[in-house]
Amino acid sequence: MMLEGKVAMITGAGAGIGVEIAKRYVAEGAKICITGRNQGRLDKTVSMLAPGTAITCAGDVSNLEDAKKMVEATVAFGGKIDVLVNNAAIDPGGSVVDLDPDVWHAVIETNLTGPFYTMKFAIPYMIKNGGGSIINISSLASVRCIPTMAPYCASKAGLNHLTNQVALDFGKHGVRAVSVLPGPVRTEMSEHSLGGMADVMGCDMDGVFQKLTCTIPLERVSHPREIAGLVAFLGSDDASFITAETILVDGGASMVDPCGASLKMSGASGWGAEMR
């Protein structure tokens, strides 16, 4: 029960990683307010949780008034806000040449401006209460570019830096801020994004994820609950001296370079003349 007595707000909690974070937070003793654009999805998440542990507040984090409403609903429910988890995100792709400017703005507004808004309103409550924890769900794509995913990669890279800025500016008030960078995670969003690859690769979605992860050390895709465990720890007092960090949860994917990946895919066990 590492989060017993804490009150948290979790955005994007109607699907994927957000659902697992909500479940883990309640299991660890927290009261939570979950937010998202789809009330039906939020209700489904709450139905998985113990009665009285969670409320919903539907809205769009990219809307200033909605973000304010979410934070105020959290405080009204729990009397304070100890933890803010910014998980809401969208990931339509495109290169800078092909991308519709409206799509660019939509991704930046949701993935970067949304956390700015929620932090803007949550931090004063945290300061009043003596501190708090902010966990921003970024991505491996913030440090490793993905082909034709310009807005997503840029928004997540910006989120890392914004997180560190918050840690710098408000650490003296007891507010911690950390970026969590998942690698390949099997969620509804990732399956939708990668759906076209199944046809190109001539396989089903299991095959797509297998091929995408065959060169990383753990050789598998992760489950959202594997992200949730870290997020729960970071919101707890056990992480009280961790701030301004970008923490990778990627099965080791970030350390694989093209040469190493090519060697592994070819079946080679080493490098150099002795391998000929």
Lay out the secondary structure.
Layout: E1 7-10, H1 16-27, E2 31-36, H2 39-47, E3 54-58, H3 64-78, E4 83-86, H4 101-128, E5 132-137, H5 150-170, E6 175-182, H6 188-201, H7 205-213, H8 224-234, E7 245-249, H9 258-266
Parallel strand pairs: 1-2, 1-4, 2-3, 4-5, 5-6, 6-7
Helix pairs in contact: 1-8, 3-4, 4-5
Distance between the termini: 55 Å
Structural class assignment = alpha/beta
Sheet with most strands: strand arrangement: 3-2-1-4-5-6-7
- Backbone shape: globular
**Element string (H = helix, E = strand):** EHEHEHEHEHEHHHEH
- DSSP summary, beta strand count: 7
CATH topology group: Rossmann fold
Q: Can you tell me the residue ranges where pLDDT is under 50 for at least 5 consecutive residues?
A: none
Number of helices: 9
Rounded radius of gyration (Å): 19 Å
CATH class wording: Alpha Beta
CATH homologous superfamily classification = NAD(P)-binding Rossmann-like Domain
Can you describe this structure?
This protein is of the alpha/beta class. The chain is built from 9 helices and 7 strands; from the N terminus they run E-H-E-H-E-H-E-H-E-H-E-H-H-H-E-H. Helix 1 (16-27) packs across helix 8 (224-234), helix 3 runs parallel beside helix 4 and helix 4 packs parallel to helix 5 (150-170). It has a 7-stranded parallel β-sheet, sandwiched between helices. The chain has helices at 16-27, 39-47, 64-78, 101-128, 150-170, 188-201, 205-213, 224-234, 258-266; strands at residues 7-10, 31-36, 54-58, 83-86, 132-137, 175-182, 245-249. Strand 1 (7-10), helix 1 and strand 2 (31-36) form a beta-alpha-beta unit. The chain has one domain: NAD(P)-binding Rossmann-like Domain (Rossmann fold).
